[in-house]
Design a protein that fits this description.
Blueprint: H1 4-12, H2 21-51, E1 57-61, H3 74-81, E2 86-92, E3 95-99, E4 106-111, E5 120-123, E6 133-137, E7 139-140, E8 143-144, E9 152-162, E10 165-179, E11 190-193, H4 195-206, H5 210-216, E12 221-226, H6 232-241, E13 245-248, H7 258-292, H8 294-302, H9 307-339, H10 341-348, H11 354-357, H12 361-382, H13 384-387, H14 391-397
Parallel strand pairs: 4-11, 6-10
Antiparallel strand pairs: 1-12, 1-13, 2-12, 3-4, 3-9, 5-10, 6-11, 7-8, 9-10
Helix pairs in contact: 2-7, 2-9, 2-12, 4-5, 7-12, 8-14, 9-12
Amino acid sequence: MKSPWSLSSSWRDGCPLRRTLPALVVLAALLTVSAGVAGGAAGAVERDVLRSGGLTQIELSSFEGDASVRPLTTSALRDAADVPGVRRVVADYAAAVYAEEGGTYDLTSRTLTPGDDLPVTRGRIPAELGPDEVVLPAAAQGTDFAPLVGRTAAFGYTRATGDASGTTEVVELRIVAVYDPGWQADGPGVAYLSEDTAALLAAARAGRSPDAFRDREGARSAVVVVEHQRQVAAVTRALQEDGFSASPVSDRVRALPGLFGAADLAMRAGVLVLALGAAVLGAVRAGDSTRARLGQFAVLRVLGSGRPELRRILLGEALLSGGVAGVAGTVVGTGLSVALAGPLSAVLGLPITVTDALPGLPWAAAALLLPAAGLAAGTLLGSREVLRRDPYLTARAHG
């Protein structure tokens, strides 16, 4: 236990261990914020994967110019559908639709795949979109689409007629639903279509018939729906062996994008940095603290106090300073993580709740305990040499 004398002495003499508090608070806060951000992102993505049935889905990608990856042509997709365990394959074709007349919007068009779980604000998305149906954002580029739900509207699209020329054609589509425009998993302002309609627009932009386009150029990606979750690994291996670039949709939880991937890395590195930083600061400051009160410690030793008792005094100071730093850093980091939940939801395009943004118990415990543990370890090492000095000679020197 730390004696009342050591408490008053360390406060009066300006205990050097207290100077470590700002650095340790910052390190603990950074660890807590990183844990909250990465955990919140993982929770949001995992919920999205579960809601959309992602645990039974596999993504196929086609990389232009990469001969090692099989293009997603009609025959290739047919081969993917024939793999044992596959229930359905939906190809994604990208193009664009724009205002036919009197408007300003220009929307990317894509296939609505089983992996898309749109937050619908009005209307209802059927189990499978018909060739004349479309799902739009509630508002995009100054146009409010919500009042048009249930109506048929004319959309323009481009049919290529040469290398740098094309004509505008019109397709009439019924708007069956609109979704929250804040959801931007595929980018802002996306119009979702049936597979056949999306392929029709992509083929027109390339100047080909739909059948020729699908046979020669193929889709940019596809979603493979597997009959049962336990078959995902085997089906993925079979598709990869057949030349496809295939990966389970659930892998998105372990491959967070950009900012969230960096937060996950910072969280793991933060544990090591916090522990080492606390130990180094503890060793340096414990030596300074002991030297600053060398005369006082020498008198205590002359009066009968042993080195173990003095070490306990220093250890108590380290635990107190580290505990304060850990609590302060965890509280500050948790507050920042919760405050960032809203802005980060917009970045990810998925809702991160306040509960998601709270750091997990293991990471919070690390932020709470590592500063005190590191300071304690450093104190035991840093004070060893100073406490070995002869107390009588030291007491005389400090007269």
